[in-house]
Amino acid sequence: MNKHALVAAIKEKKSYLCVGLDTDITRLPKHLQSSPNAVVKFNKAIIDATKDACVSYKINTAFYEAQGLKGWEAMQETLHYIPRTHFTIADAKRGDIGNTSAQYAKTFFETLPFDAITVAPYMGEDSIRPFLEYENKVTIVLGLTSNKGAENFELQKLYGGKPLYEEILTTVASWGTPDNLMFVVGATQAKSFLHIRQIIPDHFLLVPGIGAQGGSLKEVSHFGLNSDGGLLVNASRAIIYASSGEDFADAAQKIALNYHEEMRPFL
Ligand SMILES: O=C(O)c1cc(=O)[nH]c(=O)n1[C@@H]1O[C@H](COP(=O)(O)O)[C@@H](O)[C@H]1O
């Protein structure tokens, strides 16, 4: 699915919810833990339960890579199970010298055919170009992240007085278009959304940090939405671990529907 199809899905469904499949093998409900392929069973149940409320799924690759070969297989099976009507994100946070980034792009755009990947901008233009060369794929660059460590570098002022993250948004935006580039902005950074929208009015923002990290969906929506929707708000733990019992999928569905209901009036 490309960005235009995503915009259509958001408008039709009146949802900009992205469900995060950060599936931690140690947090699976007890009744699944001994079952073979437990991660895939869990993910399939979560997808079945939440697909009507959301337009996107984000697979955080760390939770799968940590399991070795079995984890990569689970990631692949999960990706293929996600309906084509949903925008798929590999949250892999890659980026390296050009020829290495080209291999990362191949991994997450071809071998595993995700629609988008998260990328760290630290190594600059040649580390991001190989991702942008793919037509109909989206590169999501870390802008202002949700974590405390954002203060260490992203919010530090450069010599001109501008914070580093602003320089990243402006410069990276000039390497692509709002069709092939999005930016990560954490929901915990709500007070910066108005300003960020002045710098990049047209780009989609992937917004993690509601739910477990305490960000406000209302604030983010108020300041972040644009005429395309322009937001993908992610929640992972708050949805997928809404219950640790046999009712985990029903509980996940309830939370996802609540987010959807909160989003509806904004569109
Ligand atoms: O790129 C991300 O998705 C990301 C960026 C960021 O600034 N903060 C952030 O939490 N994330 C990811 O978003 C998800 C948030 O998970 P929950 O806090 O459980 O909703 C995790 O997969 C994080 O790795």
UniProtKB/TrEMBL annotation:
Catalytic reaction list: orotidine 5'-phosphate + H(+) = UMP + CO2
Under the heading Pfam families, the entry gives: OMPdecase (PF00215)
Q: Top enzyme class of this protein? A: lyase
Enzyme Commission number(s): 4.1.1.23
Quote one Gene Ontology molecular function term. Answer: orotidine-5'-phosphate decarboxylase activity
PANTHER family linked to this entry: OROTIDINE 5'-PHOSPHATE DECARBOXYLASE (PTHR43375:SF1)
Q: Which family does it belong to?
A: Belongs to the OMP decarboxylase family. Type 2 subfamily.
Q: What is this protein's record name?
A: Orotidine-5'-phosphate decarboxylase
- Species this protein is from: Arachidicoccus soli
Q: Which gene encodes it?
A: pyrF
